Amino acid sequence: MANANETPVPDPARGGEALERDLPLALKGRTLEEAGWCRIDALTLCVPLWSPSADFFLLRLQFHCYPEWPPSAQFVNPITKDYKLGDDDRWLPNIEAPHLRVHPNYNDQKRQLICNSTTLEFYDLRHSVEARHVWDPERHNFNHTLFTITEAMRLYYRGRQG
Fold first, then answer.
1. Looking at CB atoms within 10 Å, which of 29, 50, 112, 115 has the fewest?
2. Which domains does the chain have, with CATH numbers?
3. Which one, of 150, 143, 147, 118, lies nearest residue 22 by Cα?
4. What is the pLDDT of residues 71-94, one digit of tens each?
5. How many CB atoms lie within 10 A of CB 37?
6. What are the tens digits of pLDDT across the range 93-122?
7. Is 96 helix (H, G, I), strand (E, B) or coil?
C-alpha cells in the first residue's frame, strides 16, 4: 500500500507486467486504436480526454512504480507528449473539484501536479492524505486513476489553463 511518508520506488519490470495485466480491463474489449489510446513505450500510455465543452486533452500515464503506487499522471502537449512548464500550460484543464486540482507548477517545484491520491506525483511530493484515500494495489488499478480524473473533468471543468 502507498504511504504519504515514503518515497515511491521504481520497479519497471513489475510495472510493465501489471500494466499488461490491467490494460485489457481498462480497454473493455477494445483495442488501443479503437479506444484512441497509444503506447509510447512499455511503461507509458497516452489517453485522450475531452471536456464537457469538447476541449481536447492528452493524459500521459507512466507505470514505473505501479502497481504498489498509482501511475504517474500528467496532462501533456499532444504533439510532443511532454509537458514544459510555461509553454504547455494551455494543455492543462482547469478542474476545480473538491478532491482534484491540476497545478501547472505545484509549490514552485517546477512540476505539474494532478493533485489527487490516484497519481504518483501526489505521493512523490509528500502530499498529505487521509487514510481512506491512500492508494491500495489490492483495491485499485490505473482504471481508478482514469475514472477519478475523467469524472472530475466531467463535473468540475472550468476551461483551459494558461
1. 29
2. 12-160 (3.10.110)
3. 143
4. 999 999 999 999 999 999 999 999
5. 18
6. 999 999 999 999 988 888 899 999 999 999
7. strand
